[in-house]
Amino acid sequence: MFDYINCVTERFRFRSTRQQQLQVFWAEQYREIEATTDFKNHNLPLARIKKIMKADEDVRMIAAEAPVVFARACEMFILELTHRGWAHAEENKRRTLQKSDIAAAIARTEVFDFLVDIVPRDEAKDAEAAVAAGMPHPAAGMPAADMGYYYVPQQ
């Protein structure tokens, strides 16, 4: 009983700390965007972004600043997803970011719901951990082989 209460208390503490970290993260992103003067250097390749944009048949012309904006948006997306995944890894007392951390970040964050079918959760591991901790889990007993990746074919 006390282990369960300690676990719940610790999760609450992690959640409030995580919220504070996210607020600081977004404030820093905002400051960084406001202070940006060099639009020539990017962490993601603009040519690749432009190629992906042109994959849509309806796109005929792309303004020069569009790939720059997309590059920054992609960076911010990756940073937030990584930040949330890292919080999950720390919550599980690990120092290595794993696929399951990213999947958990996606599952916990409503804005990432569009990724739920693309990045599968390893529910078999979650179920094993829940059973080991004596907590109920809806996927308990579900074999890992039955949970595959969802692939969206190109059209």
UniProtKB/TrEMBL annotation:
<dbReference type="GO" id="GO:0046982">
    <property type="term" value="F:protein heterodimerization activity"/>
</dbReference>
<dbReference type="InterPro" id="IPR009072">
    <property type="entry name" value="Histone-fold"/>
</dbReference>
<dbReference type="InterPro" id="IPR050568">
    <property type="entry name" value="Transcr_DNA_Rep_Reg"/>
</dbReference>
<keyword id="KW-0238">DNA-binding</keyword>
<dbReference type="GO" id="GO:0005634">
    <property type="term" value="C:nucleus"/>
</dbReference>
<keyword id="KW-0804">Transcription</keyword>
<dbReference type="Pfam" id="PF00808">
    <property type="entry name" value="CBFD_NFYB_HMF"/>
</dbReference>
<protein>
    <submittedName>
        <fullName>Nuclear transcription factor Y subunit C-2</fullName>
    </submittedName>
</protein>
<dbReference type="GO" id="GO:0000978">
    <property type="term" value="F:RNA polymerase II cis-regulatory region sequence-specific DNA binding"/>
</dbReference>
<feature type="domain" description="Transcription factor CBF/NF-Y/archaeal histone">
    <location>
        <begin position="43"/>
        <end position="106"/>
    </location>
</feature>
<keyword id="KW-0805">Transcription regulation</keyword>
<dbReference type="GO" id="GO:0000981">
    <property type="term" value="F:DNA-binding transcription factor activity, RNA polymerase II-specific"/>
</dbReference>
<comment type="similarity">
    <text>Belongs to the NFYC/HAP5 subunit family.</text>
</comment>
<dbReference type="InterPro" id="IPR003958">
    <property type="entry name" value="CBFA_NFYB_domain"/>
</dbReference>
<keyword id="KW-0539">Nucleus</keyword>
